[in-house]
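Need a sequence for this fold. Nothing fancy.
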């Protein structure tokens, strides 16, 4: 009888711990799929009427940007995994919070670095646009921001 009760309590405790585990992968920037990127390229080309020169400039800068972002994202994934492993190690949550605090701070810095790279890439793209294209691009960004789900960045 005691074994059954202890088994049930252990199962409940494990279930509760699992339910409280943190899922940190929500904040990792993700690379758009090929289809998403192609749709975005077509939309930008259609709305902004890009010249071949501008398209080449965008393509060249995008590949460089992706390489830089992949490095940052890889570091973020490694950090997320380290944090997750500490929470799954079985130590109490408050101890795991204390132990992971420096890692979370580093993760924030990596996220800020990714945001900075993204903004630099956008500024570089916008610098190749004419004034009319810049105005249209701002309209396009505003439209896309309104259509984006609230919890998506």
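Here you go.
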């Amino acid at each position: 009888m005691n074994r059954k009760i202890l088994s049930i309590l252990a199962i409940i405790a494990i279930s509760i711990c699992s339910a409280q585990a943190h899922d940190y992968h929500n904040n990792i920037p993700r690379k758009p799929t090929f289809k998403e990127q192609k749709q975005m390229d077509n939309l930008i080309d259609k709305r902004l009427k890009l010249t071949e020169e501008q398209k080449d400039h965008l393509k060249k800068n995008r590949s460089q940007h992706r390489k830089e972002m992949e490095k940052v994202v890889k570091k973020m994934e490694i950090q997320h995994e380290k944090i997750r492993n500490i929470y799954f190690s079985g130590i109490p949550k408050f101890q795991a919070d204390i132990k992971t605090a420096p890692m979370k701070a580093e993760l924030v810095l990596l996220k800020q670095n990714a945001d900075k790279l993204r903004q630099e890439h956008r500024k570089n793209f916008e610098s190749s646009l004419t004034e009319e294209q810049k105005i249209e691009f701002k309209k396009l960004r505003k439209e896309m921001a309104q259509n984006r789900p609230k919890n998506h960045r």
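For context: DSSP finds five helices and no strands in the chain.
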